């Protein structure tokens, strides 16, 4: 990808979303490669949007796993206002990769994060998928450029990295490789927007993309503060949910500091608080490691803070709260593309 | 403060909140020292909770500034369900510091962030305030230990650092100095909880306390990614509001990764994704500076992203969204302590 996306392109994503039906008319059949947690989540969303889904995964028990997974996320899909009446009507399974993608309008691959395996998978997909199919990988850590070296048409592959779980969290990071075409990027953007997601096209391939880099930067300081005994995990979580979390749900870090700068906005903020941050705060941030003592502290406090419920119960609780939040902010997807 | 606060102390904060009336019965009169943005916000919250407020600030136009400020935040107070009918009935002004605090049950100081000035102010407050008054400073950067060296009774001073704006964002970081008494800490916790805030007691005095350190860690990477041209400010903000923000509004970073670890929870997360984060992501994070080129980029993009509204308009929009979010999560304060 050579040309940078213009800052106004967010507007086109929005208009694409409101024209969801026509876009999704071109996507009647999806191949989900890899039926783990991410694959199941994509499958559920695609199905709820009226797209037939064939799941390809070599595991013998894949059908049971996927059906159980879909049953698990159905309440969240329904909570988002999506139709879930006959969710699995369009679901099928096909272990053979070439057969699975042979009639796909979109291929969303969620295989293990191993470069050689991804190259092998994508070489096979490219051979067998229709020429019109949109080809996307959910990878969180492998650049499309590296995978596409194995492909005859590297222009066709793009990263479509969801934030977990994909059926619920709006963000999809679209990360073009060096040779991904502009047309592929725009098709991916329109497709994810039509699904009700909030796609964001990155202008450069950087390790971890954007959301995971930011998450990792904040988490490093979290680990430091707990390891140093400034707060417990539970206390730190409560600090975040009662300040930064709701703030950043409503406006991002730049908008927040623009408003924190008073009438002078972000420029004023940078000159006053920003420079103080650079000279006194950034150098004071921690540089923790997961050594034995730190891991022991983290595990002990996690048991104390979260030991009262299963991960499944806690996740369901989180998902209900997240849907309530999205509803309050008017950010649940419309329920176009019904299947029920 | 010698003894660490137990992890179960969150429960006592909650029960203090539900017993708001009795606690606030002991706080009939507050002295707000410094009538800037933070002072006005505290004043509005105190007044809405039925506490008389005397504002002490040497500026000649302070009364106009505070009254205008209170009018500005009244919609947000009302949005939180607090009574605002006769908000300024209990409001008065007193430039003389000693007179202002002479009958105060609580003193909340919001002066400039200069150590010598704070020492001078607190020496004067200590001389003039009643022996029972709760003494708190809103400072975001000066430890109570450093201010209290000038006081005869350092056990009485505690940091009560709000997250801006104090009337709206639930968090108050209570940061005891080396000589702050346990009794002072517990009184502060009960007082802020009774106001409907979510106080959190830190176990150690560290520069920037907790929320601002976390914010600063994430913002460093934001500046890096924009300076490197990976995303624009607008795009980065949209990435955060569509992923990390809502996630952290619902559960903090540790809970999020506990749930991200699958059935194995946080221990599983650390062993697999955590160690990968340590070895590949943390070393790759940026180390930006506010040099001329970076500042020019940040200012240009801020004008492009936020130039369409005044800071005041954008802040009002943000506050409305934040209140809707808090309401959806059941986190607005009850409307006890009515004045109307």
From TrEMBL, chains A, B:
User: What Enzyme Commission number(s) appear in the record?
Assistant: 1.1.1.45
Q: Does the keyword Cell inner membrane apply?
A: no
Q: Which domain of life is it from?
A: Bacteria
Q: Where is the 3-hydroxyacyl-CoA dehydrogenase NAD binding domain?
A: 30-204
Instruction: Please classify the protein's predominant subcellular localization into one broad category.
Output: cytoplasm
An example Pfam family from this entry, by short name, is 3HCDH
Which InterPro entries has this protein been placed in?
A: 3-OHacyl-CoA_DH, 3-OHacyl-CoA_DH_CS, 3-OHacyl-CoA_DH_NAD-bd, 3HC_DH_C, 6-PGluconate_DH-like_C_sf, 6PGD_dom2, NAD(P)-bd_dom_sf
Q: Any idea where this protein resides?
A: Cytoplasm
Q: Which UniProt keywords apply?
A: Cytoplasm, NAD, Oxidoreductase, Phosphoprotein
According to the entry, every stretch annotated as the 3-hydroxyacyl-CoA dehydrogenase C-terminal domain falls at 208-274
**Pathway as given in its UniProt record:** Lipid metabolism; butanoate metabolism
Top class in the EC scheme = oxidoreductase
Subunit details: Homodimer.
Family per UniProt? Belongs to the 3-hydroxyacyl-CoA dehydrogenase family.
In Swiss-Prot or TrEMBL terms, this protein is called: L-gulonate 3-dehydrogenase
Q: Which organism is it from?
A: Streptomyces pyxinae
């Amino acid at each position: 990808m050579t040309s940078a996306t213009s800052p106004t392109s967010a507007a086109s994503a929005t208009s694409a979303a409101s024209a969801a039906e026509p876009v999704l008319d071109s996507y009647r059949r999806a191949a989900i490669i890899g039926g783990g947690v991410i694959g199941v989540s994509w499958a559920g969303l695609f199905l709820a949007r009226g797209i037939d889904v064939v799941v390809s995964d070599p595991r013998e028990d894949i059908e049971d796993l996927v059906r159980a997974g879909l049953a698990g996320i159905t309440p969240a899909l329904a909570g988002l206002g999506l139709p879930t009446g006959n969710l699995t009507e369009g679901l099928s399974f096909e272990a053979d990769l070439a057969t699975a993608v042979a009639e796909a309008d979109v291929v969303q691959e969620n295989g293990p994060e191993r470069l050689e395996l991804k190259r092998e998978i994508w070489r096979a997909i490219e051979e067998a998928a229709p020429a019109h199919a949109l080809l996307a990988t959910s990878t969180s850590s492998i650049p499309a450029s590296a995978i596409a070296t194995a492909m005859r048409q590297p222009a066709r592959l793009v990263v479509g990295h969801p934030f977990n779980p994909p059926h619920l969290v709006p963000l999809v990071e679209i990360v073009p490789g060096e040779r991904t075409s502009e047309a592929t990027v725009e098709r991916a953007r329109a497709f994810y927007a039509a699904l009700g997601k909030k796609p964001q096209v990155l202008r450069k391939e950087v390790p971890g993309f954007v959301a995971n880099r930011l998450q990792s930067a904040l988490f490093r300081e979290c680990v430091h503060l707990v390891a140093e005994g400034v707060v417990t995990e539970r206390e730190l979580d409560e600090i975040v949910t009662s300040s930064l979390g709701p703030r950043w749900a409503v406006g991002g870090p730049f908008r927040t500091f623009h408003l924190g700068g008073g009438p002078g906005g972000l420029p004023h903020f940078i000159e006053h608080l920003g420079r103080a941050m650079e000279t006194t705060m950034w150098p004071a941030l921690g540089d923790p490691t997961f050594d034995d003592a730190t891991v022991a502290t983290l595990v002990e406090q996690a048991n104390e803070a979260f030991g009262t419920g299963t991960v499944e119960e806690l996740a369901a609780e989180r998902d209900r709260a997240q849907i309530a939040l999205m509803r309050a902010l008017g950010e649940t997807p419309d329920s176009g593309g019904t299947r029920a």
